Amino acid sequence: MTATASPIGQSIRRKEDVRFLTGAGQYTNDITARHTTHAYFLRSPHAHATIRGIDTSRAKSAPSVLAIFTGEDLVGVGGLPCGWLITGTDGKPMAEPPHPVLARGKVRYVGDPVALVIAESLHQAKDAAELIDVDYDTHPAVVNGIEALRHGAPQLHDVAPNNKCYTWALGDPTAVDAAFAKAAHVTKLEIYNNRLIPNAIEPRAAMAVHSRSDDSYTLHVANQNPHLERLLVSAFVLGLPEHKVRVIAPDVGGGFGSKIYLYPEETAMMWASKQVNRPITWVAERSESFLSDAHGRDHTTHAELALDKDGKFLALRVHTNANVGAYLSTFASCVPTILYATLLAGQYTTPAIFCEVTAVFTNTAPVDAYRGAGRPEATYVVERIVHQAAVEMGIAQDEIRRRNFIRTFPYQTPVALVYDTGAYEPSLDEAMKAANVAGFAKRKAEAEKRGKLRGLGYAAYIEACGIAPSNIAGALGARAGLFEAGTVRVNPTGSVTVMTGSHSHGQGHETTFAQVVAGRLGIPVDNVDIVHGDTGRIPFGMGTYGSRSLAVGGSAIVKALDKIIAKGKKIAAHLLEASDADIEFRDGKYTVVGTDRAKAFGEVAFAAYVPHNYPLATLEPGLEETAFYDPTNFTFPAGTHIAEVEIDTETGVVSLVDFTACDDFGTIINPMIVEGQVHGGLAQGIGQALLENCVYDPESGQLLTGSYMDYAMPRADDLPKFKVSNTVTPCTHNPLGAKGCGEAGAIGAPAAVMNAVMDALASAGVKHLDMPASPHRVWQALRAARA
Amino acid sequence: MYSFDLVRPTSVADATAALKKKDAKALAGGQSLVAAMKLRLAQPRTLVDLSQLAELKGIKKDGNAVTIGALATHAEVAESSVVKAAIPALADLASGIGDRQVRNMGTLGGSIAHNDPTACYPAGLLALGATVRTNSRTIAADDFFTGMFETALKDGEIITSVSFPIPTQAAYVKFPNPASRFALVGVFVARAKDGVRVGVTGAAPCAFRSKPLEAALGRNFTADAAKATMIGASGLNGDLHASPEYRAHLIPVLAARAVTAAGTTR
Known about the structure:
The complex is a heterodimer of chains A (787) and B (266). Helices cover 28% and strands 23% of the residues of chain A. With 787 residues, chain A is of the alpha+beta class. In chain A, the strands form seven sheets. In chain A, strands 3-5-1-12-9-10-11 form a seven-stranded mixed β-sheet, sandwiched between helices. In chain A, helix 9 (375-393) packs parallel to helix 18, helix 14 runs parallel beside helix 15 and helix 15 crosses helix 16. The longest helix of chain A is centred in the last third of the chain and has 28 residues, at 549-576. Chain A is globular and about 90 Å long. Chain A starts with 16 loop residues before the first helix and ends with a helix. Chain B is globular, with a radius of gyration of 18 Å. In chain B, strands 4-5-10-6-7 form a five-stranded antiparallel β-sheet. A four-stranded antiparallel β-sheet of chain B has the order 11-12-13-14, sandwiched between helices. Chain B has a three-stranded parallel β-sheet with strand order 1-3-2, covered by helices on one side. The termini of chain B are far apart. Chain B contains twelve helices and 14 strands. Chain B has 266 residues and is an alpha+beta fold. The chains are: A alpha+beta (787), B alpha+beta (266). Chain A binds chain B through residues 123, 126-127, 287, 650-652, 691, 695, 704-705, 708-713, 774-776, 779-780, and chain B through 1-3, 39-40, 175, 177-180, 182, 240-243, 246, 249-250, 253.
């Protein structure tokens, strides 16, 4: 790459892949400390029980055991906090039950950590755990959000009567009622958005090290936002000085949201590392991940759409029951509210929307943000009901969407958001073309000859990424900032080290961010290194979630680059004996306008660090700048996904034969990385629609899908060759024009696939089917429709 | 995993002696046993590794039968030119077990001794009318699979080989569990000079022969004849992934597909 060819928009191979593909990655469990000990967590085998007593005496005398801690030992340790306060329709704050690091008094889900065993080896820790005698008094359990609200349901927390966390609402119910009163048609829909288990390829892992020399802690942890982790664990839970805690999230093998949160395990380990005065290491076994990683989704929703005689949407009314599990995970409360109800306008001009959400505690693992977090649930409601309305009114699926698209921007939705920009019809048109919708009727007829049902499904989704601005989020209950920070350090030889608060756990930031920097400075991509994931090295940042990294983290880097370039101008002006105003920076060179007198960026950098010929009286040496960027609005990626399925009516097997995605992510820096992100998101969205389903036994509260024997993850041969393309309307309010691409696939795919399934099954008389559309369920639906 | 003693005998006699120890267990391919040990669900005190027993290896044609050593891996059976030529349906069955790593380690003898109700091989043994040879006797497949994870093997008895009569037509169709890809239902149909045999796995606590399908296909070896056969749901498995009724429905559907796949008489 020459310095003059801009790397922006080029599919440069991911710099990080060499180490990932050659086994040179440094994941948490690759990092070892001298004299490390091993942690094992004894977990509750019961969904709901009172702990009458724990006898650890036999276990403590087992070979090589250093210590065993239970909830009663963690004196002075706070509970795990929730980062977003939701105020209910009754004006009261949500019920926030204590979330002890290790269970105290009661256990509330299968997998609830009860004791931490620390031994010289993992096997010895496990052996000792078997000697711990926990006296449980078991209670009936409730795992379903609707059941948990019923009179007489088992009660989880004293501070949450009827298991209710909150009932919250958004929108104008009066306007919605009025619109329904004059509607020509009303479509109603009951849907269940299935609970998912994240399944990152790298399980959660941690290593906690306490240093006696300065009473400081280092926590290596598979985490998406090390500074937030540090803030929560030090200030909110353990009461430690923040500056005495360093959190390092090295290479992390996937997060999908599940590694945003502060979990009990690393918290207990940090505390314990000082008690035992030895490093402690832990990596979750896959069965532990199933039980204890924060799950996703689990919404039960009743929705109603009012339309006029032409199929124009008049109003949308949505009631959702959100199962948040046994305790509030770090951001659990904002997912089914702020990140869900605000998206119910979708791409449409629906003038009146009302959404009421009741969040409910159950005897299940905590539920929190999972790839898309609220937006897949919203898209699923909107696009499934739009599909059904079109069927009921006899309007073509694309036509009903065209009639309702928002076409002027900025657009104020009735659910709080202001869309800055977008163009929805071009995405729909391009997706239809790529999916060859025109040829569908022929393909359907041909399938029928083979005895198969073929269906086509659309999802015209929108998402809101880069949650912001901080002050408005704060007014809505956020207990954290939502900015991002970046430091650009130009080294004396002109190479650049960037410290970003964003965190890469598969996203390819080391490449994309380097392209941004190289493009702005006119230097080779290889001369830029991106440092992330270590509170000891990076400025205070908020990490990576919600497809925010390029739009927010990248913008912070751009702001820092602007400062670098401006300072460089002053240095260049001095070197070139010209005035600052006469210097322009282009293609890696500072030039006196209208002359060929120029200094390369590297020469300016060298002068900054070897300031012999330098304006020392007016300018500090060095070339390093930090910027914090707090966005003025969300970004609004959008697009159309089209799925085509074929169903074997004999067996109920749904084959996804084609999938097309046309997305508008704003400006794209690396098309290959974006395509990869879309592929991964689609695989997860298709997994939700056809395969994945977390099931707890309704009586015992045991997790029935606790391994890959029963939890169906999508495999490569479950997926078709994706047709992926883009339209581009740059974001109007960040310097990159970027909107975010990480979650789009998981947001659009479930509705597109299920709409295709419903389209295929319509001729057989099937009216209702919930995800996942497994062979068994499809067969049952077909049989019921025939009966 | 709990700690255990590993012994590695080089003769069948030494292996049987080792298996007489308390809580001893034979290790063939380890694809079920080792996983159970890692989860601390199985805790043998002694693990008798059979991998050095040369007489348990090899695949050869014996007149009208193919004899496969108990230690033949699924990959070896899948790729064996002998099996592919004589009983392609059996090679096909082996090629669909687990994933490549499992097929490279898992063995025929290990699979049938374990008798997982969702394993593929039992359906093949039943349909082909195979004979299981052990260090002390021969056991007809019909008598071998006695219940869920139960076989006719006695303590310390070691499978040495399995002999499969060569059918005139055969095919195996597996309907995979969407999560595990074990057989939700698997149907092996084999036609021989003396009649049609149908082995069913995945559907019940133990693989079984479907007499109604055998009778129907014996009269008329067509997909339609299979489809027209009603199978009752009574006694079949119901779980997260399939009700007994769904499994009952799938058995004739898969049998029909197997008949179609079995192709022409050789």
